[in-house]
Structures are given as structure tokens and as C-alpha cells.
Design goal:
Elements lengths: L2 H15 L20 H8 L6 H4 E5 L2 E2 L7 E2 L6 E5 L6 E2 L2 E2 L3 E4 L5 E2 L11 E5 L12 E4 L4 E2 L3 E6 L5 H8 L2 H8 L9 H4 L9 H20 L3 H19 L3 H11 L11 H18 L4 H17 L1 H20 L9
Parallel strand pairs: 4-11
Antiparallel strand pairs: 1-12, 2-8, 3-7, 4-7, 5-6, 9-10, 9-12
Helix pairs in contact: 4-7, 7-8, 8-10, 8-11, 9-11, 10-11
Length: about 350
């Protein structure tokens, strides 16, 4: 094989590299969402929404031409720079909690991923799915010039689009449900990430979401209680979900599928987090009153919780309706008014 032909082969490999996926049979306990109309209905709803491709560029991390263990260190070394090799090195929702040192000698690297602008602020997200269930992603904001191994994507925004909004979307239920759809791949493919829809938010709401994410980051670093952190995550998810403006039935199906499963690194499910925030707002309403934003948030939360509980209450409502119809037929339905 001559050098020219080998160079062509390498170029073809590089083009295909970002969309390589590990194929695996689905686990028996994994929901087979690709057989469910939920994702089809979500895609139909998001047809006119902007997507991640409109606001960001995504690149995969570096790859070595020899065993990775030879190129990773816990300590600084000449030619090494701070980065992430594995998810457990420090990838957390919205922030990075640790790092390793990665070898950036071009002679030990395949492709040119080290040339991407790793020195710029970005969102880092895992390539391989994070769990066997519906939650696939952890997205963190990095301002510390980390370089990533091939197990991660870097997401660089265009035109100063808020990194916090990108992280909130990728950590949220809609993105994770849409990526769960294929069901046969362990990888979150770049081409699928690009299609993730963005919520339609006003500038005020986008600025508010940015503040919420930044406040969450600060409280994690400060060691605040889990209740405070869960309430903040609830506010973030409520803001994002409201920007998606899902029809009631579709939102109910979404939350029935993913809303009762704990997200990665969280100790409460999305619905439990929102219930917690709901309780705090109700207490504040009667003790000192709510701001305009909090009043609007409570309306949004009530809608979301109603949708989340729809599957639970539907059989009860059907049974009551049947009983009411029978009593109406008998001329006595005064107690069953809907």
C-alpha cells in the first residue's frame, strides 16, 4: 500500500469516525421506545423548532494510536494537558468536578481532534450512553480549557448562544427521550445530537435559565443541601419544558416514560424534583406571597404535574365516568359532576 492510498483511507476513516456506533442487543428491562409512537409524535411537534445544529458545532475527542493507559496521568507531565478520559473522571450535570492529564503529542494521536478549540468555553457531553434506561446524557459546562478523550463530545456554540441553555437541554427529559429512540446503540451519535430541538424562550426566560444554571453550579461547589439542588434542577426543567410547549397528552406520555426515573447523579426523579419545588412555592405563597415569575412558574408546574399524573388518574376518571353514566341513566348523578 503506497502512502497516497493510505492517506485516502485515513481521510475516509476520519469522516466515518464521528458516527461510529457500538451495536448491542437491547437489555430485557430496557424500554423499547423505538416501537412506541412517542418519539414520532415528538419529532412532529418539533418540526419547526430550531435545533442544536443551528447554534453549535460538535466534535469528538482525541483518539490514540496505542493503548490509552500509556497516555493518561493523574499528575502533570511534559506534553500533557488537563482533560477527561472517562465519565467518572469528573463529568457531572452542569459542571466538571475533576480531571486527568492527557498526552497531546501529535505522534501518538489518530486524526486531528486535538486541533479543535478545546481552549474555548464549551459544553462537554458523553458519547456512550450513561445508563441502560431512558437517561442517556450528562452535559457539563467547561471554562477551564479541558481536552477530551474520544468518549466525549465538545459542543461549541455560535454567536454567543448561552452554554447554560445547551447544557439544560441536553440534561433534560426531551433530549434524552429522543436519543433513547433507536434503542440498539450504546452511543449517542453526533448526527442525532444535532437534531435535538431547542425550546422557544423569550430573552428574559433564556437569561433566567442561565442564572438558574449558574446558581446550581455555585451551590454544588458550596455543598448546599440536596433539596436546594433538586429544587433548582426542577426550575431549570420547568423552564425548558415550558419552552417546548408540548400538547398536554404528549407531555403526559413523555413524563410517563422518563419522568419517574432518576436522572444521572440525581437522587430524585424529574417529577419528584418538580413536586419538591411545588411544595416550596405553595409554602411561600401562603407565608409571604409569590413574585410574578414565581406565580407563572406555579401555573407551569401545576400543568406539568397534572400531565405527569394523567396515566394514574385516567382509570379512576374512567371508572367515575362509567358510574356516573349508570347513575344518570337511573336518574341520580347529582354527586358526580365533572
Amino acid at each position: 500500500m503506497d502512502g497516497k492510498f493510505y492517506k485516502t483511507v485515513r481521510q475516509k476513516l476520519a469522516e466515518a469516525y464521528n458516527n461510529i456506533s457500538i451495536v448491542a442487543l437491547p437489555d430485557e428491562d430496557e424500554p423499547q421506545l423505538w416501537k412506541h409512537p412517542l418519539t414520532k409524535n415528538l419529532r412532529a411537534h418539533f418540526e419547526d423548532f430550531e435545533t442544536l445544529k443551528d447554534v453549535a458545532e460538535i466534535h469528538r475527542g482525541i483518539q490514540y494510536n496505542s493503548p490509552v493507559v500509556d497516555h493518561v496521568s493523574d499528575f502533570p507531565k511534559p506534553g500533557f494537558t488537563r482533560g477527561l478520559q472517562k465519565v467518572k473522571d469528573g463529568l457531572e450535570p452542569y459542571l466538571i468536578s475533576g480531571s486527568k492529564y492527557l498526552d497531546l503529542d501529535p505522534s501518538v494521536l489518530n486524526f486531528n481532534a486535538h486541533l479543535h478549540p478545546w481552549n474555548l468555553s464549551k459544553v462537554i457531553v458523553n458519547v456512550t450512553r450513561i445508563s441502560r434506561g431512558p437517561w442517556r446524557l450528562i452535559a457539563a459546562i467547561d471554562d477551564s480549557e479541558l481536552v477530551c478523550y474520544k468518549r466525549f463530545y465538545g459542543v461549541w456554540v455560535k454567536n454567543n448562544f448561552p452554554l447554560e441553555l445547551v447544557a439544560a437541554v441536553l440534561n433534560g427529559p426531551v433530549a434524552n427521550v429522543l436519543l433513547s429512540a433507536p434503542g440498539k446503540s450504546r452511543d449517542n451519535l453526533m448526527k442525532d445530537l444535532y437534531t435535538i430541538p431547542l425550546p422557544k424562550l423569550t430573552k428574559d426566560d433564556a437569561d433566567w435559565l442561565t442564572q438558574l444554571v449558574q446558581e446550581y453550579q455555585k451551590k454544588v461547589v458550596s455543598g448546599n443541601s440536596s433539596n436546594e439542588l433538586n429544587a433548582l434542577v426542577a426550575q431549570i426543567n420547568v423552564t425548558v419544558l415550558s419552552g417546548y410547549n408540548l400538547p398536554y397528552r404528549l407531555e403526559s406520555e413523555l413524563l410517563d416514560y422518563i419522568g419517574h426515573v432518576e436522572p444521572p447523579r440525581m437522587n430524585l426523579s424529574v417529577v419528584e424534583q418538580i413536586r419538591l419545588r411545588h411544595g416550596l412555592l405553595i409554602d411561600k405563597k401562603f407565608l409571604e406571597g409569590l413574585t410574578k415569575r414565581e406565580t407563572d412558574e406555579l401555573v407551569q408546574i401545576n400543568r406539568i404535574l397534572d400531565a405527569a399524573e394523567e396515566k394514574y388518574y385516567a382509570p379512576i376518571k374512567d371508572a367515575l365516568a362509567t358510574q356516573c353514566a349508570a347513575m344518570r341513566h337511573a336518574g341520580d348523578c347529582g354527586l358526580f359532576l365533572f
